[in-house]
Design goal:
globular; 405 residues; mainly alpha; Growth Hormone, Chain: A; MFS transporter
């Protein structure tokens, strides 16, 4: 037995404090993963100008990435299930690094799109494994808080990663922004190797009489997850375009995204505090704020101040979205933690890629003003699914029914 295998076998889940180093490593890795996925959002105008494509076509860089995740999350997670979980995560971070380097030096849009697809394949494995990984680091009744803390890394991707890369790309070029991101990915890989303990895989739920109901609950969670991301990314993929159309100066775009994104930490912190206590209430309130914020953006557009204020409200809500759906999916026990992670990852990216594509269609067809109304309607549909699925989104958390480690 190797040292890594022995460590994984002997690892025992503990408190959030005891697992702090591992949770920090996962949050850091999540930060670079989210930043890698979304960095084109703030750089769309620069990329489209440099590569001589429309902003709608440039937005497909997000779509191609997301659809690779959607298609490959389950099969790649299944194919790597016998490999050490830590090794899989570190390999994914290495591929992120390579993908960003290729994007930075690619002379054509086709090669940029190919490199983004490579990053999407890495993303398919990374988030599928990291969701199950975080739940295994702590005792079962603390899974919601652990997942919420890890998704602070995702919020930091919005708060720091995308806005800072946007500001950097505006100042010195979008290609330099991707090179800097590649360096940050490599650094995250080194720190993850040092801080993240190895944990065992497995954890499949029992094949008892309740298995069908658990799988149905998981299906409802992932459906709501896909709709929430679809509605959000229909608008968010083109937020830089919308803000510029609302009269925001190009030089102010990076700082504006930084400020708006920072407010997402409020939602993430709320999820960390409430998910293990009032999961249904937390989920419903999260979607109400997201849908309301996007709708308010549509009503305020093209007024600059109103559009920025509505985007800030929307960001507060979206800061909690990843955690509420990851925790709900894990707690259905509809599959093993890694397979649950793959399904959450896949459906989220169906929403991300579909949102980018749908947003492009609406933007090129009906125009700027119609994009927020489309997104708000889809998030409202996710809320309807949550309200109807009481088993999948229970009012309180039953510790005894939680996942087994």
């Amino acid at each position: 037995m190797s040292a890594a295998e022995h460590e994984a076998t002997s690892w025992q889940p503990g408190s959030v404090r005891e697992a702090g180093g591992g949770l920090f490593a996962l949050a850091l890795a999540t930060f670079v993963a989210i930043t890698t996925e979304l960095v084109p959002v703030g750089l769309l105008p620069l990329i489209s100008d440099d590569l001589a494509v429309s902003e709608g076509v440039a937005g497909l860089l997000v779509t191609a990435y997301a659809f690779m995740v959607a298609v490959l999350a389950v099969p790649l997670t299944t194919a790597t299930r016998r490999l050490p979980r830590k090794t899989v995560l570190l390999s994914a971070l290495a591929v992120y690094t390579v993908s960003n380097v290729i994007v930075a030096v690619a002379p054509t849009f086709a090669l940029v799109a190919t490199a983004r697809a490579l990053g999407g394949a890495s993303h398919a494995v990374f988030f599928s494994v990291s969701i199950g990984y975080a739940s295994r680091l702590v005792r079962a009744h603390l899974a919601g808080r652990a997942l919420a803390l890890v998704t602070l890394g995702a919020s930091a991707g919005f708060v720091l990663g995308v806005p800072l890369s946007t500001a950097l790309g505006t100042a010195v070029g979008w290609r330099t922004a991707f090179l800097v991101l590649a360096g940050v990915c490599a650094l995250a890989g080194v720190l993850t190797a040092l801080l993240l303990p190895s944990v065992p895989g497995g954890g499949a739920p029992p094949a008892d009489a309740d298995r069908g109901a658990r799988r149905t609950a998981l299906a409802r969670v992932t459906t709501a997850n896909a709709l929430a991301y679809l509605g959000h990314y229909t608008v968010y993929t083109y937020v830089s375009v919308l803000l510029l159309a609302a009269g925001l100066a190009t030089s102010a775009l990076g700082p504006a995204l930084l400020l708006i994104g920072a407010l997402g930490l409020i939602g993430a912190a709320y999820a960390a505090a409430r998910l293990d206590v009032r999961p249904r209430q937390t989920t419903v309130l999260t979607l109400v704020v997201v849908a309301g914020g996007i709708l308010a953006l549509g009503l305020a557009f093209p007024g600059t101040a109103g559009t920025l204020t509505a985007a800030a409200v929307w960001s507060v809500g979206f800061g909690a979205v990843a955690a509420v759906f990851q925790a709900a999916a894990i707690r259905t026990r509809g599959a093993s933690p890694d397979v649950v992670g793959a399904l959450v990852n896949s459906t989220a990216n169906i929403g991300i890629g579909g949102g980018a594509a749908l947003g492009a269609l609406v933007l090129d067809g009906a125009g700027f003003a119609a994009v927020p109304y489309t997104g708000a309607g889809i998030v409202a549909a996710a809320l309807v699914v949550v309200l109807a699925a009481r088993r999948a989104f229970p009012a309180t958390h039953d510790v005894g029914a939680d996942i087994a480690h």
